[in-house]
Amino acid sequence: MLSKIPPLLTVNNALMDEQLLFESALLLGMAVAPVIWWTGRKDAAPYGRHHTNSGAGSRAVKAENMIAWNLLTLPTRITWFLMECPCLFFMVPIFCMGRYANLKPPRILAALFLLHYVHRALVYPLRMRPSPKRNFPVIILISGVCFNIYNVYIQARSLSNFRSYPPTWLSSPQFVVGCMIFLFGMVTNVWADSILISLRKSSKGDAHSPASTSPTESSSKMYKIPMGGLFDLVTCPNYLGEIIEWLGWATATWSFAGLVFFVLTVCNLLPRALAHHQWYLINFPTIYPLKRKAIIPFIL
Ligand code: NDP
């Protein structure tokens, strides 16, 4: 029976099927975004200062969940690498399967994506100074890997297969402005992360260490108040930079897939920035600059 179906028809059917899968994946991303936002507002994802054993005054985590979260952890650096590497390793093979993979505009856009993930998966884990007292929860690793596999699929297929870019795209306002926004966001993100890394390096406890009367003193000694540049305006310029980066990506790709990534990043990082901000206010009650906002200067 199957042998009677002309080969071209089966190929076309497969493409139609994948188009349906791709479009469903995009809609799924948009549908999940409010859930990510709501979950993040309810309880910050339990890694870093919001990890259950940090005891650091995040809006935390009920006692019965604490044991489960804490049981399964891995060393932080290796976890960051594992979490982010799907985007690094799968972009090229998935991209190359696309019908427009030979064209210059999608190739340059894919290179931008890879630039971010070479840094995030390889450079950042090597540079970071994770707390020696706690590892990274496997549950966050698993959700991060799932997200990154989903995301690299939609971005790569959009770039080289489902969205077509004419050669003139490279001089379009969307591409030029989008690339500038992307690079500005990346520089901001890397700069802010570098400041945080340098705080951990030199963290011995000084005027900006948490107040000694803080109930969370023992676990938050390794944090200091970052100062200077954008840190004078917002608590989380690294998250702000990341959001700007993916806004630039959505603009440069001018695609629904790019928009989905941007929206998901906002829904993930904005609530986390609010939780970080709250954490500083609790742990540095008298000295945290009150004029500083969480993530959007002068606004939020
Ligand atoms: P954080 O700002 O929470 O932490 C960054 C690093 O700096 C951690 O190692 C942290 O230690 C340390 N640190 C933070 N604040 C201080 C301080 N006051 N004093 C000393 N050390 C400090 O960022 P994340 O770990 O959540 O994220 C890291 C990077 O990954 C960021 O660039 C972020 O934009 C990106 N990211 C992107 C996401 C996306 O959806 N695209 C999602 C999540 C992250 P510790 O871990 O012990 O707190």
Please characterize this protein's 3D structure:
With 300 residues, this protein is an all-alpha fold. 64% of the residues lie in helices and 1% in strands. The chain is built from nine helices and two strands; from the N terminus they run H-H-E-H-H-E-H-H-H-H-H. The protein has a two-stranded antiparallel sheet with strand order 1-2. The longest helix has 36 residues, at 7-42. It is globular, with a radius of gyration of 21 Å. Mean pLDDT is 88; it is low at 55-61 and 204-219. Bound molecules: NADPH dihydro-nicotinamide-adenine-dinucleotide phosphate. NADPH dihydro-nicotinamide-adenine-dinucleotide phosphate is lined by residues 48-49, 128, 130-131, 189, 193, 196, 199-200, 203, 223-224, 226, 238-239, 242, 265, 268-269.
Sum up the structure in keywords.
single chain; 300 residues; mainly alpha; two-stranded antiparallel sheet; 9 helices; 64% helix; 1% strand; binds NADPH dihydro-nicotinamide-adenine-dinucleotide phosphate
In short:
It catalyses: a 3-oxo-5alpha-steroid + NADP(+) = a 3-oxo-Delta(4)-steroid + NADPH + H(+). The chain is mostly helical and 300 residues long. It is 64% helix and 1% strand.
Hetero groups: NADPH dihydro-nicotinamide-adenine-dinucleotide phosphate
- Largest sheet descriptor: 2 strands, antiparallel
Question: Which residues form runs of ≥5 with pLDDT under 50?
Answer: 55-61, 204-219
Total helical segments: 9
As laid out across the biggest beta sheet, the strand order is 1-2
The SS-based structural class is mainly alpha
Mean pLDDT: 88
Number of strands: 2
H/E order of the elements? HHEHHEHHHHH
Task: Supply Rg.
Answer: 21 Å
Shape: globular
**Distance between the amino and carboxyl termini:** 63 Å
Beta-strand content estimate:
under 5%
Helix content: 55-70%
